[in-house]
Amino acid sequence: MASLTVIEYLSLDGVAQAPGHEGEDTDDGFRHGGWAGPHLADHREHGTVTYLSASAFLFGRRTYDIWVPHWPAITDPADLIAGALNSRPKYVVSTTLAEASWAGTTIWPDRIPDRVAELKKQHECQIVVPGSSNLAHTLIEHDLVDTYQLWYHPVVLGGGKRLFGGGPGPLTTLRLTTTTVTATGVAILTYDKTT
Q1: CA 152-157-159 angle, 5° bins
Q2: pTM (whole model) above 0.90
Q3: In Å, what is the CA distance from 8 to each residue of 32, 121, 122, 163?
Q4: Which residues contact 82 (CB under 8 A, 6 or more apart)?
Q5: Is 150 helix (H, G, I), strand (E, B) or coil?
Q6: pLDDT tens digits for 65-96?
Q7: Most C-beta atoms within 10 A of its C-beta, which of 56, 57, 101, 150?
Q8: Architecture (CATH level 2) of domain 4-193
Q9: Is 177 helix (H, G, I), strand (E, B) or coil?
């Protein structure tokens, strides 16, 4: 049975909102979009292994929409992340997306906890959830996350959407399994659920 791994880029004060670019998510007047930009080389260098070990990917609608214009267009066989993303099954959670343009994508409009449980039975390796913090809240609430890979960036944003504290969820005990600090000071902490 596969495990479910949530990968989140976080500021030191726990903000997950809009790490990629300025217009990514301006909800509630958020003005710091793209805050992870100075660390993009670290993301690629240290993130490849996780993408290669995934048997499938699960996205929230916003992250999917951000990634669709970029990743399917990368056909260089040396780009291992693109190769994994483009060749493996993808699932996007959305009640409004009518058609998925990224090859290999299935849309999930409902029954997310049930579908995730079924997906875990269908795969043997990990299912990776990149970003997608709104979806992560649902997964956390239903106790579906097996592993958290948290990338803490050396920046304090002072406010914004957070991965944890967004709603009710079960008490979860975690075990720190790996730690890495990148050249630019990003601390990558991987935690596995113990209960």
Answers
A1: 110
A2: yes
A3: 17, 24, 24, 8
A4: 71, 74, 75, 76
A5: strand
A6: 999 999 999 999 999 999 999 999 999 999 99
A7: 57
A8: 3-Layer(aba) Sandwich (3.40)
A9: strand
> For 157-191, how does the pLDDT look when each residue is reduced to its tens digit (9 = 90+)?
999 999 997 666 788 899 999 999 999 999 999 99
For 19-178, where are the alpha helices, taking DSSP H only? 40-52, 61-67, 80-87, 112-122, 133-141
Give me the phi and psi of 55, to 5 degrees please.
-100, -15
The residue count of the chain comes to 195
Structure-block tokens of residue 71:
């990743």
28: exposed, middle or buried (C-beta count within 10 Å: 0-12, 13-18, 19+)? Answer: exposed
Q: Quote the CA–CA distance of 41 and 183 in Å, as a whole number.
A: 10
